[in-house]
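USER: Write out one fold?

ASSISTANT:
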Amino acid sequence: MKRKNFITLLWISLATSMFFFFVFTDEKTVENFFLTVLISFMYSLVLGVGNGLINDFLNKKFPWSEATTKRAVISIVSILIANIILVYFCNYMNFVVIQKSANTAEYFSGKYNYINWFTINVALLISAFLHARGFMEELKKTSKKEVVEQKLIATSANAQFESLKNQLDPHFLFNSLNVLSSLIDENPKQAQKFTASMSKIYRYVLEQKDKELVTVEDEVEFAKTYCDLLKTRFEDSVDFVFEVNKDDLRRFVVPLSLQLLLENCIKHNFATSSKPLIIKIFSENDTLCIENNLQAREQIKESAGIGLANIVQRYSLLTKRNVFIEKSEDYFKVKLPVLSAKPNVVSIKIDDKDKSYERAKKRVKEIKSFYVNLISYCIIIPFLIIVNLITSPQNIWFYFPMLGWGIGVVAHGMSVFAIGKSWEEKKIREILEKQNKQ
């Protein structure tokens, strides 16, 4: 039990003893005052500390966040048994040991059953309050943890996406400079032409590399310009065929995907005038395909694998649709998903986080409402019982508000924690998950 809770319990004990001393004690003497304080502290410490220790133990063994239903059942059984034992012990110490108004035989004969029953009900109300507060604290921690996790996921996804996009700039520049270096030795005039065209292409790289998606039309036009550069170097050794459906031009692909795949084709295949490398770019079943006849060259050093891996990773962050790779003895083909919508990886993650936060916020509001209802019940009902016993002990009427309101509190608790819309939604999710797995 925390020190703060223990100090609060002592203050409650003192306030209770003062109330009983000035309201119920006829002889207001120092001796009676200390006796009232002693009895009040005994009840408060035994019942408060006992229930607090039980709550702490159950929090460690059966956390609310991991086994809510199981914890609720165990809590109900444990507080019933524990409070009956603790109340009988306290009343025995009070009436038999301290006040000596009865002996052991009289106490267990049934003479004090009414007092025991009343005290047990008060103890159960206090215990229910403690467990409800424990559940509330656990729910706040869990909700906060979910929001933090979603925020970390969004931040991580954003950082990963930025890292992938930042690979494009130096990758393109490095490969283009390699081509230019080769052309300077082979054909200086072509190298000059390549340099002029490269500045135009590099402008597109700088404009598009920070985007998540671009239109197929923009990407194809850029690919055609890049193919012109490749034709400048390889002439008749390489041929390009574009057969993209007009309907696909307004849809979306990841930027520079065609350029990276065209680089891969040139890098991993040899091309000669007698055996030209034929690269086709065409539409096929909601995909944009890049296919080349396979003329694999022997690799002197292992490839860094930036091109295709970059495309696959960027698509995985934007959509559930996969990049497909087909390879046979005759050809190598890559299928890029063509997307109708233009999602944003960062906004998707943040939206998920916001939705989780709103669900958690709504859940906390529901629990808070029950929490206020339970606290009000724990305060007002004992007050009504005391008023009833003082004003008209022969006419017991406190049963009606206690039972009526009590049933309402139980129904409220069941709707929030076990039965109701949340339970229905949970079962619906379970059924859908089972169907998806089949």
In short: The beta strands are 214-215, 238-243, 252-253, 277-283, 287-293, 324-327, 331-337.
